[in-house]
UniProtKB/TrEMBL annotation:
InterPro entries: Beta_hexosaminidase_sua/sub, GH, GH29D-like_dom, Glyco_hydro_20_cat, Hex-like_dom2, HEX_bac_N. One of its GO terms (molecular function) is beta-N-acetylhexosaminidase activity. Belongs to the glycosyl hydrolase 20 family. Residues 180-520 form the Glycoside hydrolase family 20 catalytic domain. It holds the Pfam family Glyco_hydro_20b. PROSITE patterns: PROKAR_LIPOPROTEIN (PS51257). It catalyses: Hydrolysis of terminal non-reducing N-acetyl-D-hexosamine residues in N-acetyl-beta-D-hexosaminides. This is beta-N-acetylhexosaminidase. Its EC number is 3.2.1.52. It comes from Pseudoxanthomonas sacheonensis. Residues 1-23 form the signal peptide. It is an enzyme of class 3 (hydrolase). Keywords: Glycosidase, Hydrolase, Signal.
Length: 803
């Protein structure tokens, strides 16, 4: 007796056909299978799948799945059983539905059925066919990965909303396969170490996005994170550093960590079960300071032992190129190859400033003997040795695009990060390439310009920008384009110290990375993606993924105040209007002005509205059907607030500097509850734009003394020293950066890092609106000073500044 616990529910006589391609504003021409009239209602209905499948066609009716639904696989079909188990697990976690998997020779009517099938209609590797109809839900694929991805899609169809228990899936025919075989995400575990649980959390999420390469950046100047048995000091010494401000704000005396080989094996197996390959990166010849700190004689160029670095950026330590060093590297690679089955091994190759090689008599002599013309070519020789070694072991070398500069070994592949030019050049030379261009794929860049963003790089990388990338750069012929293996997001971790930061930076932008790497351009559309995102956010909540809602969060502004002009109008007694909006422009914004928490019943924002100061505006964002999109944000507006700007409201005095960062109190603070400071490493100078100075008698600055822990290599000379009047330096306030000095305050003595203090000074009477320039003259060899907020003080204020 077969239980038919899955019911196919007819929704009337109307044939409802729908294609995600249509929802994306695209035609059905890619769909070879049955077609049917598409109603207006169907056009607006969204299938909650991310990444968008290659082909989708909606059928007639809906399928009901309950706690009694049979999930079956053919006897002995191990890949089907594995995928089915994974589906059942996800349904339990996200839906609270406890199904179990059975082996049955033929599928029960109206069941969920997974089956490896050499005749599956989708022939492409990793592809799958998913059919929901009167027969039930069927997933067929020609390989195990395809079955797994079919299961992920089935789970996504089942988790469109936050409800628990039984659910309905619309009738649908999906034919899906990835555009690229390489769908990656880099996690830097060297700058900040992320433990096994965090890495598994990332692996789980990657699998749910149909990503299949986890690039682990295992070694760098600031830490060596993989146990190498024959060289124990790599982790005994190289995995640990003494952080700036040790002991303050929770910063440990010793920061670090590493994975034992047993943990690596566990991670590799865990990833493999989810059809993810872990690509190990051992960064060489640069970013080698931790290795040199551990084995200065064996691999260092100078023989001197540095400390494991605490400076982010580019440090001078390179691996040596002599026989002893090259043998050492082979020894490391031998253990890496034993641990990681990945066909590719990443050898780094980025940002290797050659000063140590160029000044070493031994390296210069070796270059002469080899007939190598310069240090770039020497890196080419170094890479060639690694490529030869890896090839002899049946593996392939991949490295950052700098490896193009010294001549590329024939077998090498290139990961393009400095734009797409490296990819174009390499593909034209016949090398395989992976696109990880920083301008689209570096997820340590902040995703909004909101003040509540945590630490990160300041060039903004919104969700929409990530989504934009086409991994096949324009200008490649079809033959050259075949060298594009795929695309990859990157999460460098200088400013990502905790697992919460990892989640905040990765999600939801990983969803965009996934669609970039999986979906054909014809199935991609920004509007379609946005329509499918709320379901994805709901899954994140169900799975405990601490995503950023910044792209949807309400920005609360004085109307017209992208600059300070309208703020000044209000200060002059003009009317006050509040404008609400968000980065993506989706959702309904609900707000209150009485201090209460906004709900779906609160006023819906339509146009700028008038308020009387003081006022607290709170605004939350929901989808049209009432699901949460962004938590409530609050802004208190009174006269003091209008006379203040926070670190985000300040402007860099020099636009376009590449080194804009948002930094915490201390670089290795474990928590997330740190104030943050926008800095430009080259200029300790900020502008308070269009300050209205009528009636202003003083200025108060919330300032901080930060670690200056940045390796700038040859750019060090670009760091500007403003002339100090005393050894400790001052804060200067000027009317315009080239104008007169209005105030000068001595910086407090001492060198305690992470110390916050307030500087206050009278300002001479001025009228009208001026850009105020604030700069620190502290010696650039010492700590870095920065500003949390600036407050202008009015004559009428209760406590006028001390004169
Ligand atoms: C890199 O961002 N240095 C590859």
């Amino acid at each position: 007796m077969i239980t038919t616990s899955v019911r196919f529910v007819r929704t009337g006589t109307l044939m409802r056909a729908f294609s995600l391609l249509l929802a994306a504003g695209l035609s059905l021409s890619g769909c070879a299978e049955r077609t049917a009239p598409v109603t207006a209602a169907a056009r607006t209905e969204v299938l909650p799948l991310i990444p968008a499948p290659a082909q989708v066609e909606r059928g007639e009716g809906r399928l009901q799945i309950t706690a009694k639904t049979v999930v079956s696989v053919p006897p002995g079909d191990v890949p089907a059983r594995d995928a089915a188990n994974h589906l059942v697990e996800l349904l339990r976690d996200a839906r609270g539905l406890d199904l179990s998997v059975r082996e049955e020779p033929v599928s029960s009517p109206a069941s969920i059925r997974l089956q490896l099938d050499s005749k599956s209609p989708v022939a492409q590797a990793e592809g799958y066919a998913l059919d929901v109809d009167a027969q039930g839900l069927r997933i067929r694929a020609r390989d195990a990965a395809g079955l797994f991805y079919g299961a992920i899609s089935a789970w996504q169809l089942a988790s469109a909303d936050a409800k628990h228990g039984a659910f309905e899936i619309p009738a649908v025919t999906i034919r899906d396969w990835p555009r690229f075989g390489w769908r990656g995400q880099l996690l830097d575990v060297a700058r900040h170490f992320h433990d096994v649980d965090t890495v598994k959390h990332v692996i789980d999420a990657m699998a749910q996005h149909k990503l299949n390469v986890l690039h682990l950046h295992l070694t760098d100047d600031q830490g060596w994170r993989i146990e190498i048995k024959r060289y124990p000091k790599l982790t005994e010494i190289g995995a640990w550093r003494t952080p700036p401000g040790a002991g303050r704000h929770g910063t440990p005396q010793r920061y670090g960590g590493f994975y034992t080989q047993e943990q690596i094996r566990d991670l590799v197996a865990y990833a493999a079960e989810r059809h993810i390959t872990i690509l190990p990166e051992i960064d060489m010849p640069g970013h080698a300071q931790a290795a040199v700190a551990a084995y200065p004689e064996e691999v260092g160029v100078t023989g001197e032992r540095p400390a494991v670095a605490v400076d982010w950026g580019v440090n001078p330590y390179l691996f040596d190129t002599d026989e002893r060093s090259m043998k050492f590297i082979e020894g490391v690679l031998d253990e890496v190859l034993e641990l990681f089955p990945s066909p590719y091994i990443h050898i780094g190759g980025d940002e290797a400033v050659k000063d140590q090689w160029e000044t070493s008599p031994a390296v210069r002599a070796q270059m002469r003997q080899l007939g190598v013309k310069d240090a770039h070519a020497m890196q080419g020789w170094f890479n060639a040795q690694l490529a030869k070694y890896l090839t002899s072991k049946g593996r392939r070398l991949i490295g950052w695009d700098e490896i193009l500069e010294g001549g590329l070994p024939e077998s090498a592949s290139v990961m393009s990060w400095r734009g797409v030019e490296g990819a174009v050049a390499a593909a034209k030379l016949g090398h395989d390439v992976v696109l990880a261009p920083a301008g689209w794929m570096y997820l340590d860049n902040l995703q909004t310009d909101r003040s509540d963003e945590p630490n990160g790089r300041l060039a903004m990388l919104p969700l929409s920008r990530v989504y934009e990338l086409d991994p096949v750069p324009a200008g490649l012929t079809a033959d050259q384009a075949r060298h594009v293996l795929g695309a990859q997001g990157a999460l460098w971790s200088e400013y990502i110290p905790s697992s919460r930061h990892v989640d905040h930076a990765l999600f939801p932008r990983l969803a965009a990375v996934a669609e970039v790497a999986w979906s054909p351009m014809a199935a991609r559309s920004w509007d379609g993606f946005l329509a499918r995102l709320p379901a994805q956010l709901q899954r994140y909540r169900a799975l405990g993924i601490d995503y950023s809602d910044g792209a949807f969060a309400a920005d609360i502004k004085i109307d017209g105040s992208s600059n300070k002009v309208s703020t000044n109008t209000v200060l002059n007694g003009g009317p006050t209007k509040i404008a609400l909006g968000n980065q993506t422009g989706i959702g309904q914004i609900r707000y209150t002005i009485d201090g209460s928490e906004p709900t779906l019943k609160s006023s819906r924002y339509g146009a700028p509205f008038a308020v009387t100061l003081p006022v607290t505006v709170k605004a939350a964002v929901f989808t049209e059907d009432g699901q949460p999109l962004a938590a409530a944000r609050s802004r208190h507006l009174d006269r003091d607030a209008l006379l203040s700007v926070d670190t985000q409201g300040l402007r860099n005095c020099h636009d376009g500097g590449p080194l804009g960062l948002r930094v915490p109190l201390l670089p290795d603070m474990p928590g997330t509850d740190t104030p943050v400071y926008n800095v430009d490493l080259f200029y300790a100078c900020w502008t308070y734009p269009q300050a209205r100075l009528d009636g202003i008698t003083g200025i108060r600055v919330d300032a901080v003394r930060l670690a200056r822990n940045y390796g700038l290599a040859h750019d060090q000379s670009k760091v500007h020293q403003y002339p100090p009047s005393s050894p400790q330096g001052e804060l200067e306030v000027l009317s315009g950066c080239d104008g007169e000095i209005l105030a000068k305050v001595a910086l407090p003595a001492g060198a305690t890092l992470g110390e916050q203090f307030t500087l206050e000074a009278p300002l001479p009477p001025r009228e009208g609106v001026h850009d105020l320039c604030l700069r620190f003259t502290a010696p650039i060899e010492g700590p870095l000073y920065a500003i949390g907020a600036v407050h202008l003080i009015e004559a009428t204020a209760q406590s006028p500044p001390k004169r």
